[in-house]
Amino acid sequence: MSSLVVNSQASDGVKALLRATRLTLRVFAAHYRKAPLQAGAILIGIVLAVTLLTGVRATNESAIESYGQASELLSGQASHLITPLPGKPLLESLYFELRAQGFHPSLAVLEGTAVDDAQQRWQVTGSDLIAALSAASSSALAPVPASAGQRAAAAPAKPDMPLKGPLPLAAMLAGEPLVVMSEQKASLLPEPWLTLNDTRLKVMAVDEGYRLGDRLLMDISLAQQLLDKPGQLSYIALFDPPSERQQQLLTSLLIGRGELVESDNGEAMKALTNSFHLNLTAMSLLAFIVGLFIAYNGVRYSLLKRKRLIIQLQQQGVRRAAIMISLTLELTLLVLLGSLIGFILGLQLSYWLQPMVSVTLEQLYGANILPGRWRWQWLAQASLLTLIAALLACGSLLRELLNQPLAQSSGQLSLQRSSQQAQNRLMILACVLGAIALILMPLSQDYRFTMALLGLVVIAIPLALPYLLRQLIGLLQKISPKGLMSYQVSETRELLAPLSLAMMAMLLALTANIAMNSLVGSFEITLKQWLDARLHAQLYLRPPANQMAEVEKVLSDAPEVTGLYKQWLLRSHYQQTPIFLLIRDPYSIEHTTIIKQARPYLWRDFFSAEPETKPLALVSEPFAIKHGKQLGDKIQIAALGETALTIGAIYYDYGNPYGEVIIPPSLWHKAGLGELPLSLALNLNTDVAQFSQTLKARFDLPDALIYSQEKIKAQAITMFKRTFSITQVLNSLTLMVAAIGLFSACYMLTQARLAPIARLYALGVNRRQLIWLVIGQMLLMVLLTCLVALPTGALLGYLLIHKVTLQAFGWTIAMVWDWLAYLELVGLALVASTLAVAFPLYQQTRRPLVSSLQREVL
Questions:
Q1: What is the predicted pLDDT for the residue at 431?
Q2: Other C-beta atoms within 10 Å of 529: how many?
Q3: Across the strands, what pairs with 124?
Q4: Strand partners for 202
Q5: Dihedrals φ, ψ of 465, to 5°?
Q6: What is the pLDDT of residues 61-93, one digit of tens each?
Q7: Does 381 lie in the same domain as 320?
Q8: Are residues 837 and 719 in the same domain?
């Protein structure tokens, strides 16, 4: 019987708790109906945080998924590839022999770059279409059209589904000049025609489900004609792993004709682009933190405004547990609603960002980015992350509100003391985080670990801000004149508590912008200086291989040419990592290679007559850093077989994510890596533009194959700016998020300060003085925040340049201070703060101020 009584009492207690919780939720809902701005401020922060986090994540994962789904066009992923031998073409006759020997499915592919009339480069892929469709059928892979609701992310291919869409297969096989591209790319063309390498082609758009990305697809015979590579292939794809008998057959067939390599399913590209995606992720997390600051500021303001209401509910007998559950449920509902809105907006943001990322990855790494797909798990993860962060941030404030004595008055002095204690604790935590980063940063040799330490610095910077602002305002108090100005500075110190979170968000955004401006500006200046030293010739040209010998002979006999320089280049591998192996003529090697470190008597030993016994190599800085190589270390390049090279020098190289290795010309020719140079460079004693036009007319060369020194510099800087455009966009979005947070904080603060403003008005301060007093306080806070942001931004920029960029990309950059850009950023912050406070202040000061005093008493 006693157990039944206990169970009954427990059941009644739960029911009473549920009733109290339901009643409290109704009271809180009525509060938000009366003050919707408070709920709006919370939602704005959550929406902005989740939008940027989801947008960048969708963009990153779309790119990374593209590497893993790097299937042959219209087919599945290849298990093995047959590639050309160094310096030798891969002939299509080998492909026919493989097909005759029963290597099914297999696919012949020719890839290259073609130029249109506007000198824009296009990636061209020629394929054996019948073999591609057969391979797709046998591997149970087929493209599917993308649904209209997934324009931001096309659906993946589904098995056992026939080809759909307007693929003009019969016309392509008939030899008609047709090129196929995705609907998205085709929609950018003014007309359904494209002229590539002086060949007019009809454009056919196909559904995004074919996963063409930025590539143009055509029949291989047309591609050979367009790219001027008759009978040549880029590689042969084998879709089924060869059996033991086939391995033996391949070994005999490939002698002197090609080599068999296993497909890595995009792992090499993932490793190559890790640093780029990590940079984007760091920027999105920074924006996420800024958004959470804004959301927490809204939650804090809402809870403080309900402090009296919570006390009244407790006085009416509502249990603390019911109030805590209600506040938690309220926060959860706001997080879920804000996350859902932010998730939808984030997918749209990803749709806008993907073309920028695609251009960057294509130009830097040669990666092909396919339309991705979104996942509901991202919404769940973003919601959970936001909820946990919100509960952790608001937990102490909730406990403080619930544990306060019911008869306690919300005195200003107690609030100030509480906020000062919190500021001191945050300063101690910031010092601890900064000390950890300071101790471990010199020991870090991996950019991932360095980025984690940089995250500690990013967290420590805003945590220290409230304490620093309090000290700075305390110094101003001592020197400010008596009167209204003294009151203005004194009250500014009291505003630290309600405005500290908005200022912390603004500091984060300003610090990130200053750091990124330092990085981008320093890199641009370094790149220009390197190009000036690297480009010693006036004219550069890259004629087709079948014209190279003739062009070289004509130029060597031309009286206008005072200097003829050559470069040979070959793609190879070092420890399964793609690199460029190259040589230049001796003059170019010695005078245009910007040396970072070198052994004594470098050029004498490098150009010695016996490179086969002790060959030296010059390696680029990215190669040396990525593989942890120093002077004197031994390396073996795949194209050179068992030949061991000794690193004789490390040279600077910018804008190239692949490693480079320069070997002696005698070793190159001894290894049979090719006699014809890839490109030529000229110095002239005549007008460069006129001589360039003469060459174009004589050899029928397109503009894209002839570059003046100025054109190369302009294209390099354009490519550089495109590379950083995505980062600058995210930087601007972060600053915009902080500005929105500042606006909402100012609006809420102005509402909360109606009574003090009304008291000043009653004491004889006119409206104009009131407006300038409040605006002056806000500008003072922002200006002091900017003063803190300048050294912290410079520190963050220093770490980005001398640690992260060096470790991730292998680029040594001299840090340059752009004071004008910093002043512009400070001016932008001041203008944003003025606009943020002007509207709510004007709106409030137009109302009868005496009524504010009456409401304060009530």
A1: 93
A2: 14
A3: 112, 216
A4: 178, 193
A5: -60, -50
A6: 777 666 655 555 555 666 778 888 766 788 888
A7: yes
A8: yes
Q: Is 191 helix (H, G, I), strand (E, B) or coil?
A: coil
C-alpha 624/C-alpha 660 separation (Å) is 9
Q: What is the pTM of this model?
A: 0.74
d(CA 513, CA 734): 9
Last residue of a domain, one of 378, 409, 440: 409
Tokens (6 digits) for 32? 């938000």
> pLDDT of 2-14, one tens digit each?
554 445 555 666 7
Residue 738, number of CB atoms within 10 A of its CB: 29
Q: What letter would DSSP give residue 369?
A: P
| Contact yes or no for 62/354 (Cβ under 8 A) | yes
Task: Give the domain range for residue 145.
Answer: 72-264
3-state SS, residue 712: helix
Going by the DSSP 8-state scheme, the letter that residue 604 receives in this structure is H
Q: Which two tokens stand for residue 224?
A: 């050979």
| Residue type present at position 654 | Y
Q: Which two tokens stand for residue 207?
A: 């559904």
Q: What angle do CA 484, 486, 488 make, to 5 degrees?
A: 70
Same domain as 462, residue 381: no
SS3 123: strand
Please tell me the distance from the alpha carbon of residue 262 to that of residue 241, in angstroms, as a whole number.
9
Helix axes 307-315, 376-403, angle to 10 degrees: 70
End-to-end alpha carbon distance in the chain: 53
Burial (0-12, 13-18, 19+ Cβ within 10 Å), 553 = exposed
- Asked if residue 761 lies in contact with residue 770, where contact means CB atoms within 8 angstroms, the answer is yes
3-state secondary structure of 333: helix
The answer to the question of residue 818 being in a domain is yes
Q: Going by C-beta distance under 8 Å and a sequence separation of 6 or more, which residues neighbour residue 483?
A: none
- Residues 90 and 65 occupy one common structural domain: no
**pLDDT above 70 coverage of the chain, percent:** 78
8 A C-beta contact, residue 110 and residue 232: yes
**Percent residues over pLDDT 90 in the chain:** 6
Interatomic CA distance for residues 369 and 114, integer angstroms: 19
Q: How many domains does the chain have?
A: 4
Among 231, 264, 297, give the residue marking a domain's end: 264
Residue 707 lies in a domain: no
368 and 63 in contact (C-beta within 8 Å)?
Answer: no
Residue 754 lies in a domain: yes
Q: How far apart are CA 518 and CA 162, in angstroms?
A: 53
Whole-number Å distance between alpha carbons of 39 and 328: 14
In tens, the pLDDT along 254-267 reads: 887 877 777 655 55
Q: Which residues pair with 112 in a beta bridge?
A: 124
Cα 188 → chain centroid: 24
Gap between the Cα atoms of 225 and 221, Å rounded:
6
Give the H or E element holding residue 318: none
535 falls within a domain: no
Burial class (CB in 10 A: 0-12, 13-18, 19+), 415: middle
How many angstroms separate the CA atoms of 574 and 286, rounded?
A: 36
Count CA atoms within 13 Å of residue 795 on its CB side: 18
Distance from C-alpha of 292 to C-alpha of 290, rounded to nearest angstrom: 5
Residue 609, Cβ density class (10 Å: 0-12 exposed, 13-18 middle, ≥19 buried): exposed
Whether residue 225 sits in one domain with residue 84: yes
Rg of the chain in Å (alpha carbons): 33
Q: Verify that 277 and 252 share a domain, yes or no.
A: no
Instruction: Based on the fold, state whether residues 203 and 313 are members of the same structural domain.
Output: no
Same domain as 85, residue 66? no
Burial of 532 (0-12, 13-18, 19+ CB in 10 A): exposed
The three-state secondary structure class of 746 is helix
- For residue 522, give the nearest of 170, 166, 228, 800 by alpha carbon: 800
The per-residue b/e assignment along 646-682, b for 16 or more CB within 10 angstroms, e otherwise, is ebbbbbbbbbbbbbbbbbbbbbbeebebbeebebbbb
